[in-house]
Design a protein that fits this description.
Elements (H helix, E strand, L loop, with lengths): L10 E3 L2 E6 L3 E5 L2 E6 L2 E5 L4 E6 L4 E2 L1 H9 L3 E5 L6 E4 L8 H11 L1 H13 L12 H23 L18 H23 L16 H7 L7 H11 L4 H15 L2 H13 L19 E3 L3 E3 L7
Parallel strand pairs: 2-6, 3-7, 6-8
Antiparallel strand pairs: 1-2, 3-4, 4-5, 8-9, 10-11
Helix pairs in contact: 2-3, 4-7, 5-6, 5-7, 5-8, 5-9, 7-8
Length: 307
Amino acid sequence: MKIQDLHLLPKVRDSASFLYVDRCRIEQEQRAVAILDARGRVPIPCASLTTLLLGPGTTITHAAIKNLSECGCLVAWVGEDVARFYAVGLGETRSARNVIRQAQLVSHPRTRMEVVRRLYSMRFDEPLSEDLSLPQIRGLEGVRVRETYSRASRETGVAWHGRSYRRDSWQGSDDINRALSTASSYLYGVCHAAIVSAGYSPALGFIHTGKALSFVYDIADLYRTETVIPVAFNCVAAQGLGIDASIRRTLRDALVERRILDRIVVDIAYALDVDADLNDRVEDDPTVPSMLWAPADDVTPGGLNYG
């Protein structure tokens, strides 16, 4: 959301907002921060923000970063309109509740399978039968994606010979495969920013595994057929400016129109069967020590000498 739309801040959840800014300077202003650009100075009550997304051309002072951190606002450095994700600071909450829940679910075969089935079911309009095995579900997903590619090819006139991409041979791919890869990288950036903002690990995937962004791929696949595929085919068909610039702008508009950044946190909460209400924040007092894990009692007070 641009700076001129501050009165319409979108909600990550009912009580927590995110704000995207670019080409501006951010300074401390008492217990808030102020955003300065060619149009003037706008104060932002950072205590009401969950995440501040810094786009290209943004500078921020040390005092402003300190103020945002003390208010529990996560700061993320991203590409234009959150098209890419570069780095992130300290999060909105000091609680590890979400990532602990994620680790528990991914570590047990039964609970992991429940999440896998839920993630797959979110991609289909009709409920998946409980009798379907995982290979059968993957088969149905393959058919769904293949039909999406074929339909996009028919509607745009762009020839489609299958998904083929090699990182070490970028120019060896055709235009549509390069376009799909470019658009996918932007979608990954959006999902990555939302995942870390909500306190989850991008590495602990359920369907995907073994990569630092496995969970990013899990979540991005929920939105691929409604964003990446149509955008890539339409941009190649239009042969606009530079294909990369055209994809970036068109995908950005599609993500905003479909409110993808708003949907991600809610969808993750559904997939992991967690309480997505961010009103339930764990206030962290830096003077209070961390709790200690105990097998019988779950946790026990820290900061004590048990000797």
